[in-house]
């Protein structure tokens, strides 16, 4: 079996247990194991998810004699920010994180007039091997734990609070294929969307989970009935080209991916976002725009929305974004087939923080 069809991350020791790894029952069990009354579990969760506090020594309603034990057992330091860079007049911030085992990955916080979005990683690296993506070319190091994913969200929420705002949107579009780390991503989504004290209370409609098209996992996610937005990275309307651009297409062809996307849309009532990185002279031909529109109209109808993404440059790549005139014609042709289509507002190119550029270089 080709390496890119093996979705399990390399076997490496996962980080120590953290409060954010645990559901409500797990937190209660962990607290009682420490010899504390069960109500302390809710207290700790309220500090973490509602007040964004991750240091028990700052939890003044926790007995002083218990703080060291709680810190060691439930609040190990998981991530350290190695480097933070900004662009767009400070509106876009990228953080390079280092985990306790030395693994590195990145997240990006983007501030807009009407929303504040953090793009988070679900894996360190990526095993999908898409040739136009810096993350995919770097290969997969390991899956992130639930808490490592959640901590990216908490850190962004703290930053927004300190800036006088509020984190409103979460997109699983950073490093990795989220559905290849299914159980931990699912648990993280539950922590993100649950109301305090069990989560951050962010609306499921404001959470987007991206995938290159792991069809069975898309159906499985649909059956969870979470109602998060599904984003499918399609990048080509024909199997011949997509086999090259998105190698997982060798396992699940476009028809299977779109059937799964339709299942998701029907199960959740949510429109599916189709991501399409537009690459000069590779996938931007008028006939491919027509074919994309026809296939999406047939498979999803009004439940499809195409996000055209001007290709972002990556080191060593000979590929480039399509000219603006070609981009406009591509969008026009997709819309002419009755499919909603817009061009994504690209942020963070100058700091290698845009789509496909994350490489976690220290």
Q: Structural class, please? A: alpha/beta
- Name the CATH homologous superfamily of the largest domain: Aldolase class I
CATH class division of the largest domain = Alpha Beta
CATH architecture of the largest domain: Alpha-Beta Barrel
Number of domains: 2
Low-confidence stretches: 1-7
Distance between the termini: 32 Å
| Widest beta sheet: strand line-up | 1-2-3-4-7-8-9-10-11-12
Taken in chain order, the helices and strands follow as HHHEEEEEHEHEHEHEHHEHEHE
Describe the largest sheet: 10 strands, mixed
Cα-atom radius of gyration: 21 Å
Outline, from the CA principal axes? elongated
Quote the beta fraction. Answer: 15-25%
Mean pLDDT: 92
| Helical stretch tally | 11
> What is the CATH third-level topology name of the largest domain?
TIM Barrel
Helix content: 25-40%
Can you count the beta strands? 12
Keywords: 4Fe-4S, Cytoplasm, Disulfide bond, Iron, Iron-sulfur, Metal-binding, Methyltransferase, rRNA processing, S-adenosyl-L-methionine, Transferase, tRNA processing
Family: Belongs to the radical SAM superfamily. RlmN family.
Function: Specifically methylates position 2 of adenine 2503 in 23S rRNA and position 2 of adenine 37 in tRNAs.
Subcellular location: Cytoplasm
